[in-house]
Write a structure and sequence with these properties.
The structure is a homotetramer of 355-residue chains. With 355 residues, chain A is α/β, with parallel strands linked by helices. Chain A contains twelve helices and twelve strands. Chains A, B, C, D: It catalyses: 2-hydroxyoctanoate + O2 = 2-oxooctanoate + H2O2; a (2S)-2-hydroxycarboxylate + O2 = a 2-oxocarboxylate + H2O2.
Chain lengths: 355, 355, 355, 355
């Protein structure tokens, strides 16, 4: 089976992963309309490609929060990588480093932050945080991440409770007994791990914007907020001093009916007016999607499920394949659109289709 | 078979109900385009969810016409519940009471109003009225309902004649001989019950707005008008002194080509300008649909077919399951959209998709 | 098989007609997109139905060019009725008369005008005319129609040449040898009847607006022009003194890509500003379609293929069934929309869907 | 199998060509959305046909760059015609000449320019050019084409690199060993012909608008630029002195997500304001498509894949069949739209559908 595009990796993962794991990774909330819209929305955006520009030298490098990456695609935070590949997040960390890009490690990793850091020393990584009712747990994770060289803190804002994913309910989704949420081992009393490996109600749904100040007090790391979909929240994020915003609907796994991220990006970018960096995740399946997101103002995008498909295919090597294909496709799309470098990608490169 | 969402109950009902009963409940007029639009229209509405609001305490309670309900979903008036479950409307009344919400009992019930009232004493109920040519019949029903503790009168305005439901014609739909329209027993002469259990032409198609005054003269109950789809009729309803409006197209069973209720809601709410309460039925299939309707100005929604599916599944218990799922989904949607209580649900929470 | 709606007659005709006849009747030009749009366009129009109007007495009668018909649906001119039923246009004439409506007999009838007139004496009929290169033929037909009591002349404007209907080409469509274009027998020299029963190039593609004056000089009958789709041509038609306009795209059989007639109706009605009557054919499949067309300004609609399906089902009786169903559905739609008579049907009854 | 419309030729080619050849001809970039949009976009354009115009004499002739062609459809440059028919481009040249239209011979022909010229002496031909890193190759081709009587030079601007066509990658597309890029034999060192018959990186991606001046210095032939999709590039093309613009997205084979050419045509025509001729290729499948393109301002259109299907069917004869069908359909569409000659085709003949 030739692995030509990301959909080949998706087909592989669907075929070879255990059904419960595949369903968990593929899941969207309710009817999955937001999950599917994340992809469909790209098809409604048309390029306005420019011709006869010198595209003999193509430079895909960019910087996020001051650190250079080889191309504007990082790894979004997703949980439970051991469900996809035995080495789990260690493989992810190695692949991201090898490809010169950023990996956002999830709180819900099946490897510990130490293991991740040790697997790919010097790799460019951010740490994704959920705030738990037991704030001591969260505080410790933040400080551990900073000590281990993680260079940014990503606060997920869209999961005060877990979305309703019908297949997970039908399957009675459980982590296999030999997998642990390594970063949270011993953090909670009792053995009830019925909700995605944690006791129910461990997350704190009372978190508000003021908790950004609390986070700020814990760490010198830049804070990025993930899950913003409106101009109002984008303005609040800027005012509360974050360094970056990830436009995200959690892969369509939280509130079904939320807009596609590429659609929401427009209003967030407009509200932010360049004061902080704006990123996006959700629906990226080929290099031209990346180009569209950048044209609409994203500084970088992050991939979630495609990274898991890469892991499911061949672990570290498979994820590198996924990233390499995206890199190649993105570079080719840039060239065919007449852009030799990231700075030449502007808003006049795209238009929304009337359809 | 796990009952995870309302569609599971629909599948169950389709599988286990007699074809004639299923077809009757499922029927829409003509090509069923309005019936189907009721559902599709929700998919064109996108949320604008807000993040980092304290949603640790969620309150789904609201009031309709001054009476508190546990969440803004009631039971719409539908006929012939014994077609779905032997205990018929008695089960419906018990389930609604158990779940703390409002049940609008239909004129076309297969249990009498006394039986309904006795099945769930103290339950919050309204009575739905058709006006018959024989006005004495209607008058008696109104006064009986008031005497039995029903707290509101719902006048159905969109059925001067019955819509054309092709499958009912093909099936030669008839109530089984052991079922009766208990509230109308003896009301009409002769035995011809060829039109949905009644003699043809028993309904009065000459009813006009002035009959609201006649109804008002019969009862102290608040009057709610059901079947309004335009701003013009909404204005007339307010001027004629009703206390509430149910935006409804009769589940798409009357005039095929009428708009989806969620689409019509916008113009009705705008015309009413808060002078009376506005409700909606039609197309509610999950908690987020309820949230969309409330964001667009509905005070409460009512479910028709899903209630019948619940009855078909397990009677009173099945209907409670349906209501509980909707309640849970609605509460979760509120939380994920950043609303801790009904009063925080506003119009800026949604936008109509360009598609 | 219960005949509940017009689609049942379509299914019957498709099943029982010879393939070549079915294909001929069903044919659209090229990709049939206009043929299909004629139907789809109705689905994009929504009613704004009004409630609580006295609809106890429903009057569907209207007048076209001064003559009363029982409801605003006539029989559009279509050719070769013997392909559908042995008695051909004689059956059509009888059914139209029995149902109290207008029948536009085609030049391409397989019965002669005399036979048609004799089959249903006193019936309300118009005669549809193509102008042939041999003007004497056309002149004689016009004068014969007038003499036989036809009350209007319908000039088809959209067939300077016959559209390309792929299946007719594939089938090598030919009239069976025992059928003749009775009105044109002996009109043309030679035996080549390769193009729909006529010699190729018998039609005159040089006809222009000035030929209206020529027609006017031949007859006292009112002239209706059929095939108008633009405001510019509507204005020209009025200026050239026609009494009526049929908005038509020839059932999608001529220029594929022409607009649906219900869409074109809007611009024609606006241009005409009530100076002449405007009718429509194409895509009428149920009573609510008629109501939509009238709300948008049509005085009457005409059915083409559904009439042929009725003939194919049971000749005169089958066509009466079709008309009766349409009449019943139209009357019911009127009532459910709050209109007791034709004069109450106005433009505010409909709106174009955003979809 | 009757060959009634172009889709019949497509079906034939898909059935009888070797899979690798069919896939190569059919290929679009990435998800083929632009390839498919090229066709779908025509379905969103509606005619506004005019009636009762004298269309007895139909004249489809037009001129491009001063040379008359029998109707406004030429042969777009496509490569590797021997994959479709043994005589390759020689057959193409003969068919184009026989039908009185223009053939744009590709740099990537499997016959040499001499062979093409000799196959159909006196035929109206343009030569399509890619600029290679080895400019001497390109220079020689230009001068050879001019010497051989080619009357125009078409510079392809949208292929600095080859687009990603998934099936070609899966198939490991290679020219069969007995086919050669005859115009480039000996032009490049080494035997690596892994990229569509050429060594990788033989094309020059550093070409800019200034190279138009270089081309101009090589030849007296008029220069047409192919691959323009925006008003900005159209303006640049005019300013750099080209004589014509072909609005093209390379059949959807280069940047997936580029607009349908019929959509892009509008903005290019508007920008050009008649200063140079504008043509179009992509998605032409029937005569009415040609009419739509001309109504929107194209002077002529070119067909790519349909020409190859014609070759695959019966070589020169099959391509003539394709052209004859298009000619007949175009002429009929003109007549049915009320246009007797090309000059009568104007922008008010079409409108974009709201859908």
């Amino acid at each position: 089976m030739a692995m030509v595009c990301l959909l080949d990796f998706e087909a592989y993962a669907e075929k070879y992963l255990p059904k419960m794991a595949w369903d968990f990774f593929a899941a969207g909330a309710d009817e999955c309309s937001t999950r599917d819209e994340n992809i469909l929305a790209y098809k409604r955006i048309r390029f306005r490609p420019r011709m006869l520009r010198d595209v003999s030298m193509l430079d895909t490098r960019t910087k996020i929060l001051g650190t250079e990456i080889s191309f504007p695609v990082g790894i979004a935070p997703t949980g439970f990588h051991q469900l996809a590949w035995p080495d789990g997040e260690k493989s992810t960390a190695r692949a991201a480093k090898a490809m010169g890009t950023c990996y956002i490690a999830s709180t819900y990793s099946t490897c510990s932050l130490e293991e991740i850091a040790a697997a790919a020393p010097g790799g460019f990584r951010w740490f994704q945080l959920y705030i738990h009712r037991n704030r001591a747990v969260s505080k410790q994770l933040v400080q551990q991440a900073e000590a281990l060289g993680f260079q940014g803190l990503v606060l997920t804002a869209d999961l005060p409770y877990t979305g309703k994913r019908r297949n997970d309910v039908r399957n009675g989704f459980q982590l296999p007994p030999h997998m642990k949420l390594k970063n949270l081992e011993g953090a909670f009393e009792g053995n009830d791990q019925s909700e995605y490996g944690l006791p129910p109600n461990s997350l704190d749904p009372s978190v508000t914007w003021d908790d950004i100040y609390w986070l700020r007090s814990l760490t010198h790391l830049p804070i990025v907020i993930k899950g913003i979909l409106t101009k109002e929240d984008a303005e609040l994020a800027v005012r509360h001093g974050v360094q970056g915003i990830i436009v995200s609907n959690h892969g369509g796994r939280q509130l079904d009916g939320a807009p596609a991220t590429i659609d929401a990006l427009v209003e967030v970018v407009e509200a932010v007016r360049g004061r902080v960096e704006v990123y996006l995740d959700g629906g990226i399946r080929k290099g031209s999607d990346v180009l569209k997101a950048l044209a609409l103002g994203a500084k970088c995008v992050f991939i979630g499920r495609p990274a898991l498909w890469g892991l499911a295919y061949k672990g570290e090597e498979g994820l590198q394949d996924v990233l390499r294909i995206l890199h190649d496709e993105f570079r080719l799309s840039m060239a065919l659109a007449g852009c030799a470098s990231i700075s030449e990608i502007g808003q006049d490169l795209v238009q929304f289709s009337k359809l």
